[in-house]
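User: My collaborator and I are trying to settle a disagreement about how two of our proteins should look. Neither of us wants to argue from intuition anymore, so we agreed to look at predicted structures for both before our next call. Could you fold the first one, then the second, and keep them clearly separated?

Assistant: That sounds like a sensible way to settle it. I'll keep them separate. The first protein:
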Amino acid sequence: MYTFDSRIRYSEVDSEGRLTMASLINYFQDCSTFQSEDLGLGVAQLKERHLVWVLSSWQIVAERYPKLCETVRIGTLPYSMKAFLGYRNFVMLDEKGEYLAKAHSIWSLLDTETGHPVSIPDDIYSAYPMEEKIDMEYAPRKIRVPEGGRREEALTVKKFHLDTNHHVNNQKFLEIAMCFLPEGAGIRQVRAEYKKQAFLNDVLYPRVIEEDKVVVVSLEDADGGAYMIAEFTMQ
């Protein structure tokens, strides 16, 4: 497993001094980026080849949110690559090596010139050491979106939502969706399904459905087509 150590920063915690889910996602995203950069298959190298990894789905389970200044270890491992899909786990551990969070993700390799998926080249496949996937309860990739719900005010994609691929970053999508959760609610699990990319000045129309301890947020276009669907299971 590829790992790096860190310490929870003030800029990463909520009003109670604990790591936010948004910051946890950033740690995971950074971890896989560090691994790719160290293997010589980072952002710049893929850009030269007109390739990009785009996140298709997240499943993140939080056991405990670490506190301000707590030392943590973040890890990731790819366990399978098939056709144009890459499958990757993430973990965050405390100083005792106990799990703070576990995650599962599926990524698609795209040709940036066509926008279409492409088969993973042999050199990329061979560069990543495949490992056994971690022990967790794996949820389906597809998220059920109930009918109805409430409509929230539309919002326009701004420059700060974008990443190096010039589209809304996966974490920013979830950060937007988390704005519609009940006040003070703690997140036990996040599932996210990314349907299409959103770019500068695109307009997102949020639809929110609450069922017991589960909140589904669908960020949609004007015709009701989803950019991203997120399912939050509350503590």
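The second protein, kept apart from the first:
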Amino acid sequence: MTRKKNMAFSIGMILLIAAFLFPLYWTVNTSLKTEQEIFQNPPTFYPHIRNLQSYKAQVSNGDFNMFRSFGNSFVIALGAMLISVVLAVPASYGIARYRFRGKKFMLLTFLFTQMLPVAVLLTPMFVLFKNLRMYNTWMSTILADATIGIPFSVLILKNYFASIPKDIEEAAYLDGCNKYTAFFRVLIPVAKPGVAVCAIFSFLYAWGDLAYGMTFIIDQQKRPITAGIFNFMGQYGTKWSYLTAFAVVVIIPVAFLFIFMQKYIVSGMTSGAVKG
């Protein structure tokens, strides 16, 4: 690549990154403004009067407790992640290693579930959890969020197990392993990056969920952190500075998770794409 092409490519990438990051910048910018400055025309690209009251309101006493809601979201996301990984790992191994009737149809079913909008699933799940007396409990939201993470995890891990040479598994049998010990001691460690990716994305799906948490949990004390967004949306208006400050606070744990787990996400999304 010549110097001019390299410079043009770099400038194009910088502009593309700026376009993607601009909404995040505008959210932080709005959270630091007063309500008057938010609706000022023309808009300001930085707060002339720094307003930190919107962040102080997040931890103020009231019906909504941010720290308790953070704990609720963590329990729900962790539970959904564990269910997704525990069920998806053996399922994806079986789909990748064995031939059986209806295998392609099963994969299409997993893919089809990823295309269904959440609104379509709310009513049947509501009736199901209501009859099982699981309504207004964490378990209802955990199971609902797991229905999103399991198909994604199966589709990702299937390629991982399919890309692992059978010679590795056969060598484990020669060393005295049976199917179960070879699966847990050899195949899962080899597919560790893929399992990490599925665990991370299952956790993030459940962490960012709003529809299931609002529908299946009615007690404010049990609701996840995302449900707190409605505390700043009133009948006659919306407190945009408070709302955007809330969004920034909710994004922080996800941002740190991506920063510290970035190498697993990148390697996990690419290494398993060798064989489909």
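Some points you might bring to the call about the second protein. The first helix runs from residue 3 to 31. Confidence is low (pLDDT under 50) at residues 272-276.
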